[in-house]
Amino acid sequence: VRGVLERLIPQLNERDLVIQSSTIDGESAPEFAQLVEDKGARYLEAPFTGSRPAAEARKTVYFLGGKATVVAQAEPILTRLSARRFHIGAPEQATAIKLAMNLQIAGISQALCEALTLSREAAISDDTFFEVMRENVSWSGLAELKEPKLRTDDFSTQFSVKNLLKDTRLAQKTAIRNLPELERIIECLAKAEAAGYGDEDFIALMKLIRQ
Question: CB neighbours (10 Å) of residue 123?
């Protein structure tokens, strides 16, 4: 992001609006906003959630950080790309909530893989596991998304191990205090990347458990 902005900033003026949608850390977001605003342009932090299927269906959800006037100016663009948009607050707050969401995704994924492994090793069918889980409070959109992949060992990428590892490390950098589950998840994802699964879907965490 910094590299792109360094090339872009000399061309900016008061007519321009920069919408930044990469997942970055809480320190960089206000710095980037200031660089853009110093040129008279407007800056909106706009990370979004939703894997490849959601993006293709234009059902992503944006977390917006910036002035209300800038959010309003970006609305006609973002409406075409997403199902919903939340104005979270300042740029660094938009990055924080995106990282918080990805931390939950990573933690739930690890727990899902471990739970399915426990069930399989008790000779319980996947049909039974997922049918029971649908009646349990633990059922989630993530479980629904990953169920077919887990059933068939489909590790084709919707969101990769290496990208989720990047985001959890950014969460670690952004967090004020130590978060034990975050530390554990980073360890698991780093092991998955080291094992050669970095470009596969993050549900390849299942492969580590098998090892």
Answer: 6
Only one residue has tokens 């320190």, namely 27
Residues with Cβ within 8 Å of residue 52, at least 6 apart in sequence? 157, 158, 159
pLDDT in tens, 19-44: 999 999 999 999 999 999 999 999 99
Stretch 109-122: mean pLDDT:
97
Q: State residue 187's pLDDT score.
A: 97
In the three-class reduction of DSSP (H, G, I as helix; E, B as strand; rest coil), residue 28 is classed as helix
Q: 32, 62 in Cβ contact below 8 A?
A: no
Q: Tokens representing 109?
A: 């994924």
Dist. CA 47–CA 109, nearest whole Å? 21
Q: Distance between CA atoms of 58 and 80, rounded to whole angstroms?
A: 7
DSSP string, 74-86: HHHHHHTTEEEEE
The token pair that represents 168 in the structure block: 């959890």
62: which strand partners?
A: 48, 85
Q: If you average pLDDT over every residue of the chain, what do you get?
A: 96
